[in-house]
């Protein structure tokens, strides 16, 4: 009931009818694991540098259906950001303008639920650009893997014990392969693996 009310609210405020499908009920079995690399963690000031996303269908990660591109920032990138992400100004010279990047994301994601780690932040960074374009934030259902991991791990920990929710800790605890860090697509792919492992569905052969 609440979801139906929210969808109706979004539809009334949608600026561009070409994106009306984003507000429609979704009855499929695909999800999208998504990650953004940014210049920092301040939603108001910082910029998106890259976007990675991959579709998940049932128990299969559809690695052939993916987003993996750099986003051209409107402000110069700091030296600290370059050291963290290894993305140089020359790498960004022919990157995708942010307005085009947002349209690519919307076309790829559609009405599918989103999977992410620290997903609230990634969605907030995207919504900085989605709201001016559509008049609404991303209406997609959101699945936070760290919450799923907490629920899975909690019964294994003594009462009052600490549950480490760092990305690398979750990867190791779930016995997932190591991939390059601070890379949007690699993080989106690992997050998809985390999701399926926590559902009891992930196997290496499940990638397609």
How does the SSE layout of this entry go?
Layout lengths: L1 H12 L16 E9 L9 E10 L2 E13 L6 H7 L3 H4 L3 E2 H12 L4 E3 L2 H16 L7 E3 H9 L13 H7 L10 H16 L9
Parallel strand pairs: 1-5, 3-4, 5-6
Antiparallel strand pairs: 1-2, 2-3
Key descriptive features of the protein:
208 residues; 6-stranded mixed β-sheet; Nucleotidyltransferase, domain 5; globular; 6 strands; disordered C terminus; alpha/beta
Write a brief caption for the model.
By secondary structure, the protein is an alpha/beta fold.
Helix content: 25-40%
Query: Looking at CATH, which topology would you report?
Result: Nucleotidyltransferase, domain 5
Helix run count = 8
- Please mark out the parts with pLDDT under 50 across 5 or more consecutive residues, or reply none: 204-208
* Anisotropy-based shape: globular
Radius of gyration: 18 Å
- Order of strands in the sheet with the most strands? 4-3-2-1-5-6
Structure description:
With about 210 residues, the chain is an alpha/beta fold. It has one domain (about 30-205): Ribonuclease H-like superfamily/Ribonuclease H (Nucleotidyltransferase, domain 5), CATH 3.30.420.10. About 40% of the residues lie in helices and about 20% in strands. It has 8 helices and 6 strands, in the order αβββααβαβαβααα. It has helices at about 1-15, 80-85, 90, 100-110, 120-135, 145-155, 165-175, 185-200; strands spanning about 30-40, 50-55, 60-70, 95, 115, 140-145. It has a 6-stranded mixed sheet, with helices on both faces. Strand 5 (about 115), helix 5 and strand 6 form a beta-alpha-beta unit. The longest helix is centred in the middle third of the chain and has 16 residues, at about 120-135. The chain is globular and about 50 Å long. It starts with a helix and ends in a 9-residue tail after the last helix. The model is unreliable at about 205-208 (pLDDT under 50).
């Amino acid at each position: 009931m609440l979801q139906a009310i929210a969808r109706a609210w979004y539809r009334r405020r949608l600026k561009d009818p070409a994106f009306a499908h984003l507000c429609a009920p979704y009855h499929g079995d695909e999800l999208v694991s998504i990650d953004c690399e940014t210049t920092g963690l301040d939603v108001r000031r910082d910029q998106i540098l890259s976007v990675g996303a991959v579709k998940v269908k049932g128990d299969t990660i559809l690695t052939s259906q993916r987003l993996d591109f750099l986003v051209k920032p409107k402000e110069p990138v700091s030296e600290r950001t370059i050291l963290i992400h290894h993305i140089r100004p020359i790498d960004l010279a022919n990157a995708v303008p942010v307005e085009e990047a947002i349209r690519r994301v919307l076309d790829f994601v559609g009405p599918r639920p989103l999977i992410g780690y620290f997903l609230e932040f990634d969605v907030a960074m995207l919504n900085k650009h989605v709201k001016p374009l559509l008049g609404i934030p991303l209406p997609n259902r959101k699945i936070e893997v760290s919450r799923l991991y907490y629920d899975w791990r909690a019964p294994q920990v003594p009462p009052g014990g600490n549950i480490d929710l760092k990305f690398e800790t979750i990867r190791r605890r779930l016995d997932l392969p190591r991939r390059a860090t601070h890379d949007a697509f690699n993080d989106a792919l690992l997050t998809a693996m985390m999701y399926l492992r926590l559902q009891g569905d992930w196997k290496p052969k499940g990638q397609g």
